[in-house]
């Protein structure tokens, strides 16, 4: 059965006629805002062993993915059509090997002082870091799976804090 | 227990000293190549109902995500540090609502005639299309999960075809 | 006959020696500013009929052009050499079929809180939206004409409001 | 009265379901292709006098606009969503003062060896060169009008040559 | 002999574990900041004579390099991975022929009101202006040398002013 | 005394009227081409000691600079106005600490199969890698000097090989 959307709710990025729009944040206050997102890529044990070995040597797979994530966060508004261009005051991208997965886990935290939040910047950083791991490992394992990528928490702004239950 | 990488295997994007590098494809033949990738975003039934309703009206959520995916495929080499810049001859991004998920499914197919493949372009198109859906729906559901994003198949090039088992 | 420029007037983007420069806005106040621009593309009646039919179906020609306009507004400072990079708080791009033209009319409204105005962002959004319509329709009509593209009004900043007579 | 589109014609950038797509050019031959486009910006006689005077001094307004046009041609596929990224072998942008208009005329010629044409690159070069003139002159004349921008001719490719009647 | 780093000093762009990070400037005040950088390119006397002659005619070599420097300053955060994206309020790039070098000297001054400084923007403007001179002159002299490129002074921010001794 | 340019020589990137242009390479053959460039950054012994220590730990300063250089090579045609956009088949960026300088040395080698060479790509990779080292080390030494940056050799194309004497 098909559920009806909740009473009075509407997609913020679509106007009354159904057309896409950038949400107008002119009237919002410029406040400190942060967002934290996480994601993972699952790979074969053999592939993970190669990444681990590389890290012992020089750490380049994880280093490259971290840099890619940081740089992607800064370009979020070029990729996601209705995102606002924002000055970012901090982007941290952390990658960890996870033997149990097996694979790599990524977490990104982004901060700004602006009229809108940085959830998309954090999610973009995670997604591009994971794509970069895929790129560097794909010659040994094309079957890797990226995800789940999700928001962990956000803070700042009129909407108040949110965190994943 | 920690597995050792398979004998004689190595990460193609890392040189003997462990440093990151772009793989040299100078000696490869310029051949027709395609790649197909897929992904999904899971959301609440309420959020999906809003997307479905919007599609009936004008289809903008899915339209915007499709355009974002196509445009992102063209910029893959700017995002993924060791990817080669390639001319693309075709990018198709298809989005479908999935009531059972509930959520949206994305599939991208990319083609080129070049010295290297377009797996990363297809995966990037899928990832950015899903990020765009997240962006447009996040005001009604911040808990959405992106993934799994994966390669379905590739063809062309010396390595021969590959498809997900 | 060649008119002399008005007494005491000079091009703001050129210094005393005639060299191009970005205008220094350091001393200006950060205030709310908006700009609205419009433009049109004239095409054959047959071409317009195809666009109209497409709109009835899914609206993609106009949707794609709207997204292209919004995204281009955000990249104005990369395209127009002496424009300042600005955070934008709102970009709205509206497209309408005009049977009398015949063709498509575009209007863009951009808002920011910054030290300089957003006229160029509004004009860039209109221009790229029109280029996108041209691209999607060109296989049926290469003779289309883009223009006139013009500023309709601006508000905010020390210069005060301006509107087309 | 509303005309019906010509029998059997369809928008190449829209698939059977009405969704936007990049045209698949995989099967097309890589051939030499050129396109030439033109446009103009109309301004007050006073504004034109300032541009003319600047040209006598150092030529920066026209120089900056020419560079902006050349650089924009190279980024066409980032701006126009369904354009193919192409290697360009030549971009020429020429600007002339036109006392009779009064204003500035721009002509751009682009060449490539590729699977698709460069009409959009030529039109984008013209449009961005004109936007740049607008930007540099706007402090003395906000009422300037950009257009008409149009394709003059194209050559190369299976479709054969086309030129404006 | 290998010196040990000074007591208590550390690289600001590397965290305690040695991983790269963007410095968090959230807690810094938004203040007016400027930076001035300089650089040079040394070429043969014959090459310089061609540049000088071109300048007399229309000044395009220096004009193009100036525009390239201004535009590059605006894209610094896309090029230098750990730089913050900043709104810039002014970018001035000045080029001078230097017969004694022989070659071209470049100086760039950048201003912003932001939470971090614009040294990298000034240095990037200088570097890209010099690369552009190299590009335009390389057909007559491939042996040109770029450098030294250095910061001349900075002002604003908690760190106080700095200028080259 | 001012030398006159050599008989019959002219700047390839400037037309007969002195205006800037992209060189037309349509008639050139698509051949394998490579270029190798080098550069250095000189810093205090203390600053170098910090970079060396970081390398022992995780190597991030050099890793980040290498990635920045590789990514910049791919964007050369966006930065240097008259460069042709090219597909690159290989970019290698190597960084070495030099105790004697003291500082860091960078070498970049770029390869393509195209109608024009990749000298600018190699020089851009070196320049941006050096800017990135500056950025990461500037908090401990603002007086660092970048340069000389120079072409070491090029091969391929009608002009034949060239190497620094």
UniProtKB/TrEMBL annotation, chains A, B, C, D, E, F:
Active site: 135
Chemical reaction(s) catalysed: (8S)-3',8-cyclo-7,8-dihydroguanosine 5'-triphosphate = cyclic pyranopterin phosphate + diphosphate
CDD domains named among the record's database cross-references: MoaC_PE
InterPro entries, per the entry: MoaC, MoaC_bact/euk, MoaC_sf, MoCo_biosynth_MoaA/MoaC, Mopterin_CF_biosynth-C_dom
Keywords assigned by UniProt, alphabetized: Lyase, Molybdenum cofactor biosynthesis
Family, per entry: Belongs to the MoaC family.
Subunit annotation: Homohexamer; trimer of dimers.
Protein name from the UniProt record: Cyclic pyranopterin monophosphate synthase
Lineage: Bacteria, Pseudomonadati, Gemmatimonadota, Gemmatimonadia, Gemmatimonadales
């Amino acid at each position: 059965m098909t559920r009806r959307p909740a009473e009075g709710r509407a997609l913020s990025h679509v106007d009354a006629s159904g057309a896409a729009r950038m949400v107008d944040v002119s009237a919002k206050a410029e406040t400190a805002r942060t967002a934290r997102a996480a994601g993972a890529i699952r790979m074969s044990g053999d592939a993970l062993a190669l990444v681990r070995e590389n890290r012992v040597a020089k750490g380049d797979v994880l280093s490259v993915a971290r840099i890619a994530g940081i740089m992607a966060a800064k370009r979020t508004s070029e990729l996601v059509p209705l995102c606002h261009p924002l000055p970012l005051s901090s982007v941290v991208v952390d990658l960890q090997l996870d033997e149990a997965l097996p694979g790599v886990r990524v977490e990104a935290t982004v901060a700004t002082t602006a009229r809108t939040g940085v959830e998309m910047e954090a999610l973009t950083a995670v997604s591009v870091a994971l794509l970069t791991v895929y790129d560097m490992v794909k010659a040994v394992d094309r079957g890797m799976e990226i995800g789940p990528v999700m928001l962990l928490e956000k803070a700042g702004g009129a909407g108040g804090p949110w965190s994943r239950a």
